[in-house]
Amino acid sequence: MANVSYSLVYEGELTLGRDPLEVEYNLVTFFKLPQQKVKALIDRGHGTLKRNLTLPAAEYMQMVFAEVGLKVEIYHRTLANEAQPARGTKASKPSPKRATAIPLHPHRAAKQQAKARLYPHLFTFTGSGSEYFRIWFVNLLLTLVTLGLFSPWAKVRSDHYFYANTWLDGHKFTYHADPWELMREWSTPTLAALLWLNIYLCHPMVAPLLAVAMLPIIPWLVVYSMRSRAKNSTYRYVQFHFDGGYRDALGPFLLWPVLALLSLGLLLPVAIYRQNAFLIGQSRFGKVRFSFNATLRHYYRLYLPPVLLVLTLAGALGYLYLQLPAPLSPQLRLLLPPGLVLGALLLVTYLGAAGANLRYAGLSVEKQSFISRQRPLQLFVHRLKYLLLMLTTLGLAYPWLRVARARLRAESLALMAGQGFKEFIEQQENMGQAPTSPEFELFTFSNAA
Which sequence spans correspond to the domains of the chain? Predict the structure, then answer.
């Protein structure tokens, strides 16, 4: 059995329930393969994907391809070209006839290595814009007719649709909030907003002072929204929880944002890092708490250069404006606002996508971790396209915009879990965390879209 090599061969079969277009997209996105080659492979129905692998590597790659939707077989041959089938493999053969498999047990160390490996479990979104349009249009009409009283029911209907169409490892998420309970919970912030609006209309000079006095409410709103989302969310009947309190949220959502503003953005990476650490570190899946492993250095690497760029551009534009002897030309005045809007949209999109990737890179739950591969340029084109559609359709394209955003967000995210992932989920299920509960949107940690 010396000098045995293994190959992965695709023979035209997809994993159960997978659509060819979905598999093609997963291969292009996850493996960074050219789309033309992937399409040709699926249309042809056969092809050798990997050669000269060890048995543990072949088994690992077989599971990876199965996760993205491609069913592959393992073949091996010796240097003498003699078929020696291993357990769970098929022998490479010089003739079209398939050899009979003979069991060959791998070493115990190889088994332990395979068990310790992390395999990608891809998120998928199966909703469509036309389906959601009907839900959104009815919600809009009823909200207008009832002067906003239907808003809790509209939120529950929309969230239930998006959660029910988000899948992980063959199971969908669930959401079942009670609209009446949401209405009671929304009453306090709604009354506070109406009070501020009334004071602003009657006494405009007092309203800014009142707005500053109401800043301590922001941490309370964050804690309330996270608790409400978590308690109304489940995955495979396991409920999510959020344990953060108001005092814990004062620093990340009040103190550090104020310091970031006073420092002209130089402390912005600290504020965002503290917020993510609070939101993730205080969240639980069943009995297991999420961990946040990113460092402040990573956040400074991402956010400090854009802050310095914005400060430099603002200073340069202010200097030019003061030094110009005459007003700006009409052509420049016409081109400057669209240019600034596009530049701001590109910067916000880049920070949103890169920030989400960084956030998920630091997120883990027990031995499971996450990988996010949002592409800033793809997201920018998506936003620009749907911004134009929103303007030309007077907002009627919003359902398609939201569905496309959810699909991009889901398909760029993968859960990296070992072979003990199913046992981990079953253990949480057996603890009886959510006999009647809903689903937690893992995208809660992402504000990138």
Answer: 5-96, 121-336+345-445
CATH code of domain 5-96: 3.30.1390.10
* Distance, CA of 75 to CA of 50 (rounded, Å): 10
* Whole-number Å distance between alpha carbons of 368 and 419: 10
Task: Kindly state the tokens that stand for 171.
Answer: 């199971």
d(CA 442, CA 74): 35
**Is residue 404 within 8 Å of residue 206, measured between CB atoms?**
no
Asked if 91 contacts 84 with a C-beta cutoff of 8 angstroms, the reply is yes
Rounded to an integer, what distance in angstroms lies between the CA atom of residue 249 and that of residue 278? 7
Q: Residue 132: what are its φ and ψ, rounded to 5°?
A: -70, -25
Count helices and strands (H / E) in the chain: 17, 14
Residue-by-residue pLDDT tens, the chain, 449 positions: 456 778 888 888 887 666 777 777 777 777 777 777 887 888 888 888 888 888 777 777 787 787 777 888 888 765 444 444 454 555 444 433 343 333 333 444 444 444 456 678 889 999 999 999 999 999 999 999 998 889 999 999 999 999 999 998 888 999 988 999 888 888 877 787 777 777 777 777 777 777 787 888 899 989 999 999 999 999 988 899 999 999 999 999 999 999 999 999 999 999 999 999 999 999 999 889 999 998 999 999 999 999 999 999 888 888 777 766 666 667 777 777 788 888 888 999 999 999 999 999 899 988 888 988 888 888 888 888 888 888 899 889 999 999 999 998 998 898 888 767 777 787 777 765 443 333 333 444 443 33
User: CB of 233 within 8 A of CB of 173?
Assistant: yes
- Rounded CA Rg of the chain: 27
**CA dihedral defined by 75, 77, 82, 87, rounded to 10 degrees?**
-50
Predicted model pTM: 0.70
Token pair belonging to 389: 């559609």
* Contact present, 72 and 9 (Cβ < 8 Å): yes
